[in-house]
Design a protein that fits this description.
The complex is a heterodimer of chains A (about 120) and B (about 900). Chain A has four helices and three strands. Chain A is α+β, with helices and mostly antiparallel strands and about 120 residues long. A three-stranded antiparallel sheet of chain A has the order 1-3-2. In chain A, helix 1 packs across helix 4. The two termini of chain B are about 65 Å apart. The chains are: A alpha+beta (about 120), B alpha+beta (about 900).
Chain lengths: ~120, ~900
């Protein structure tokens, strides 16, 4: 198996949450649109290697969190649109909580070093 | 799980999905370029920027594909394709591996299917594990019990939850309705509680109850098997109440038993069940009539010792009431020595198992050895293949393949070989089963189910998978343990060839062959010993058969029998015709107690002797030397009673008598000097008429009708130069003239009957021989492989030797010597194993010792010969090496 390391600063596993969250709030998107949204939301601070989006989308689809269908894009081109499923919404809630907890914990550690 | 469906779709349509991904990525790039152009880049700049932002396109696609479908399945499919390519490239290796494995697996499947039927498969009845069979043994016990004894046993509700009895399964005449064409069916006489106790339900109608089996001859009822009902009556429920004729008895069909139930004999398939009170055996209620086989459901709370003790008491009481007062002390002792023995009954009642159980166990051991030998051969071939692939493996390792992946590939190849081997093995097993069936006498039944048994298939798959993994893993690990740097540097990687390991494997192979070949020799020799036993008569090609009379035949069988014999005797090409009861190798017995006046043996008490009732010219027909005179036609009606005795009779009762013809014996055994005289008119050689291993005992031959009126038609014996078929045609032609409904039964030559009587030994010798040859072939393949590999390795060395003056014969001698070394090691390892195996099968051998010099000497000789033959080609190749070329090559 080849490895899927990316050169980005995206933490392993956080891309899934970004994708799900984006689809949950912005509605169905095609691949390029999704990449654009993620970049926008991150305020351009994220070094997203856009090619890695596709394996991630397939992974999420296998898990049943998103589904895809072919449609027509804004300028009348055939494109594949991704939308979140009910299971995906539940997953977003769960992962968001997990993430908040992780951040809170990490935050304590970060402060600990600062006060020392 | 939506993912699974998606993955399956992805697996089926990979090309379409690739296209979709291309389209998606293409669109993405296009949109990015547009975006960059909008920001003011030139076309070329926009394109470059888009690519950069997207990251590696190929890499992304690859990562995408890796996730698709079932990654492990795809890599397995890839391995399979790779292995198939590799196997196709070396057809010799593939053929050798597959065929050797197929032979091993086929042999195991064939023998196991028989073993499974006779030893393992539980009867399809409720709680089969509670069943025991009750055998009468000791004294003259032969398994069966009498009806009064059965009732005693069945009455013990404190021991059993029901005891059934059966008379066994017989092939009898059958007409599905009166007036229809006559066919044959398998009929079983059973007790009334048979179905109830076994827990069998009817499909339609009802099954027997105790009420259906009360009065002799009073219950003309039949229950049909599901198969018979379907095949013969189209599963029509109108069959209920109809009359079928079974063995000439009109019976009313009352029900059909549940599907899958074929009676309690695993090698038989009962089609019609009839209450045993309908049996025509005569004195059903007599305590002297042994004809029932009980099968009992033991109460789980009764321990075996208590059960045994209770049955002992019961049996002794029975015997004492019947025989306790018998005047003949010897007879009484023998009678009272009978016991009831309990045996496991969960697999059913099998006559074939009684006979064939032990040989079958031995055969199972033999085929296991064959499979092991085949597996060792496979391991050896795989090692050789691994050695030949060293360079390729080193190359792939250095290109980054992991060792686990290479091992997996190697195992995939072995699995493919195993799969092909088992597919072919199942085919071979079918053929093997047919061969074994050919050895079984007709009365042995058919222990092979026509449909492949799931348990047997599972067994086959298990042994082939097991052998592939067990014997494939070692070579796979061995051949991938390569240091790529070393492996690539030179063509000759010594370490990976594992020559030492391969030599050890060959030695093991030879050792297995030693065991198999030695057993083949032992069984073969045993068969020869059996065949060369002096049976006391010469004409084994004599045709023997008997007439089967309709049950309702009242006229007696003498007249039609005499008429047929006269017609046959008058036919040109037929030398002589006679008849006898009991017949030659046909079962049946007749005996009587006698006094021989003047003999010390019978002075205090009478002695029981075997009797054969014969017609004139009997001894001449079978070719037995007779001193004195033969019987004549008027001996039967004559005033003077006459007898011919065998030599054992003279030895036993008249030792040292030079004129036994002048003596007489008496069947009036009440007083030492006897009563009515039976004059001895001749002495015949000791004839074994009941079996090759029959113990020679005093026997008295009497003219037909002189002593008892026979109840069974005797065997007719025809000595002729005509082919049996021609005689059969004459008999067929004559039958209608003798009376309607008379049929021919047990047709065959005496030699065929002898063959049937020793089928176990013949089967062991034939299969043993086959497996022995197989093992030799495997050993030869292994030896040849190792020797040619060794030669290829030593080309340079041989070249130097020859350049230094070694002659070709020296080289040949060197190679052959090496082969002999391997075989000697194998013999040293194998002989103790073979000896142990011979000890284990000793009870199946006839007339030879376990350490049979012929067998063991022969084994050594054959293996050495095979080794020399296998080494000959490599030796010749080595001797024809051109020293100059070999050295230059180095």
């Amino acid at each position: 198996m080849s490895t899927r390391e990316t050169k980005t600063d995206i933490l392993q596993g956080t891309l899934d949450l970004m994708v799900l969250r984006t689809l949950a709030t912005m509605g169905p998107q095609h691949g390029f649109g999704l990449a654009q949204r993620i970049q926008q939301i991150s305020g351009g601070m994220l070094d997203l290697n856009q090619g890695t989006l596709y394996p991630a989308l397939l992974r999420l689809e296998h898990r049943g969190w998103i589904r895809s269908r072919w449609g027509v894009s804004g300028n009348n081109r055939r494109a594949k649109f991704y939308e979140i499923t009910a299971a995906g919404r539940r997953q977003v809630e769960k992962e968001s909580e997990d993430w908040a907890r992780t951040v809170a914990i990490m935050d304590r550690f970060v402060r600990l070093t600062e006060t020392e | 799980m939506p993912g699974v469906w998606m993955r399956i779709k992805e697996l089926i349509r990979p090309a379409r999905l690739d296209g979709e991904l291309d389209e998606e990525v293409g669109l993405h790039l296009q949109m990015m370029e547009e975006e960059f152009r909008r920001r003011g880049m030139s076309d070329a700049e926009a394109m470059a920027a888009a690519r950069r932002e997207f990251g590696g396109v190929a890499h992304a696609k690859e990562a995408y594909r890796d996730q698709r479908g079932f990654p492990w399945l795809e890599s397995f499919a890839k391995d399979v394709r790779y292995a198939l390519r590799g196997l196709r490239r070396s057809p010799g290796f593939t053929a050798a591996a597959v065929i050797s494995l197929a032979l091993g697996i086929g042999a195991n499947t064939a023998i196991f299917s028989l073993f499974h039927t006779l030893m393992l498969r539980m009867l399809p009845v409720a709680h089969a594990e509670q069943l025991v069979s009750i055998h009468r043994t000791g004294g003259w016990g032969t398994g069966t019990v009498s009806l009064p004894l059965y009732r005693e046993i069945a009455g013990r509700a404190d021991l059993f939850n029901g005891v059934i009895a059966t008379n066994g399964v017989n092939k009898v005449r059958f007409t599905s309705q009166p007036g229809d064409r006559e066919e044959f069916t398998q009929r079983e006489y059973v007790s009334g509680n048979y179905f109830q106790v076994l827990g069998i339900q009817p499909v339609i109608g009802r099954l027997f109850t105790g009420e259906d089996n009360r009065v002799p001859g009073g219950h003309p009822l039949a229950v049909l098997s599901y198969d018979l009902w379907r095949n013969h009556f189209a599963a029509d429920s109108a069959v209920l109440g109809r009359t079928v004729v079974v063995d000439e008895q009109p019976l009313t069909v009352i029900g059909v038993a549940a599907p899958g139930f074929h009676g309690v004999a695993p090698e038989r398939h009962t089609e019609v069940w009839v209450p045993f009170m309908m049996s025509h055996f005569g004195q059903l209620m007599s305590p002297n009539m042994w004809w029932l086989m009980p099968l009992a459901r033991v109460r789980p709370e009764v321990p075996r010792p208590r059960l045994r003790a209770a049955l002992d008491v019961l049996m002794q009481q029975q015997l004492k009431t019947i025989y306790g007062e018998h005047y003949d002390a010897a007879f009484r002792r023998k009678a009272l020595a009978q016991r009831l023995e309990i045996r496991a009954g969960s697999v059913g009642l099998s006559m074939l198992r009684e006979h064939f159980g032990k040989p079958l166990g031995v055969l199972l051991g033999l085929v296991a050895l064959v499979l092991l030998a085949a597996c060792v051969n496979l391991a050896n071939l795989l090692l050789a293949r691994g050695a030949a692939r060293q360079k390729e493996i080193a190359m792939r390792l250095s290109l980054g393949a992991t060792r686990a992946r290479l091992v997996r590939q190697a195992l995939t190849e072995t699995l493919l070989i195993a799969a092909a081997g088992s597919a072919m093995g199942i085919g071979l097993a079918t053929w093997g089963v047919r061969t074994i069936s050919g050895f079984l006498p007709e009365e042995a039944g058919n222990p092979f189910s026509s449909a492949p048994d799931l348990a047997v298939l599972a067994f086959t798959v298990a042994i082939s998978l097991g052998s592939a993994l067990l014997f494939g893993l070692g070579p796979a690990l061995g051949s991938t343990a390569v240091n790529p740097a070393v492996g690539l540097r030179s063509g000759s990687v010594d370490r990976a060839g594992r020559p030492a390991l391969r030599r050890v494997l060959v030695v093991v192979q030879v050792a297995f062959s030693v065991v198999l070949v030695a057993l083949a020799f032992l069984f073969g020799h045993s068969l020869l010993a059996l065949r060369s036993v002096d049976l006391g008569f010469r004409n084994q090609s004599v045709i023997a058969f008997n007439l089967d009379f309709p049950r309702l035949w009242k006229a007696g069988f003498h007249q039609p029998q005499d008429q047929l014999m006269k017609t046959l005797a008058a036919t040109p090409g037929i030398y002589s015709v006679s008849c006898a009861f009991p017949g030659m190798f046909g079962g049946g017995s007749s005996d009587g107690t006698i006094r021989v006046p003047g003999s010390e043996r019978t002075a205090t008490e009478p002695v029981d002797v075997d009797i054969t009732h014969v017609a004139p010219r009997y001894f001449e027909t079978i070719g037995a030397a007779l001193q004195g005179r033969d019987f004549e036609r008027n001996d039967t009606e004559g005033v003077v009673k006459v007898a011919v005795v065998n030599e054992a009779f003279v030895r036993e009762f008249l030792p040292g008598e030079s004129h036994p013809e002048a003596r007489w014996l008496s069947f009036d055994d009440s007083k030492p000097e006897g009563g009515e005289r039976t004059s001895i008119v001749g002495v015949v050689r000791d004839i074994r008429q009941d079996g090759i291993q029959e113990k020679i005992a005093p026997r008295v031959y009497l003219p037909f009708g002189q002593k008892d009126e026979l109840t069974f038609p005797p065997d007719i014996l025809v000595r002729t130069a005509l082919p049996p078929a021609a005689v059969q045609a004459i008999v067929r032609r004559e039958l209608p003239r003798l009376g309607s409904g008379i049929a021919v039964a047990d047709w065959g030559t005496i030699r065929q009957r002898i063959d049937d009587s020793i089928f176990e030994t013949r089967l062991l010798a034939a299969l043993g021989g086959f497996f022995g040859v197989l093992a030799l072939l495997l050993a030869a393949v292994g030896l040849y492989g190792v020797m040619s590999y060794g030669m290829a390795k030593r080309q340079g060395e041989i070249g130097i030797r020859m350049a230094l003056g070694a002659r070709r014969t020296d080289v040949v001698g060197m190679v052959l010597g090496d082969a002999l070394l391997l075989v000697s090691a194998g013999l040293i390892l194998g002989f103790p194993l073979a000896w142990a195996a011979a000890r284990a099968v000793h009870s199946l051998l006839f007339g030879i010792a376990a350490v049979d010099p012929l067998a063991f000497g022969g084994t050594g000789g054959v293996l050495i010969a095979v080794a020399l033959a296998a080494a000959f080609l490599p030796a010749r190749r080595a001797a024809s090496i051109d020293p100059m070329r070999a050295l230059r090559h180095e």
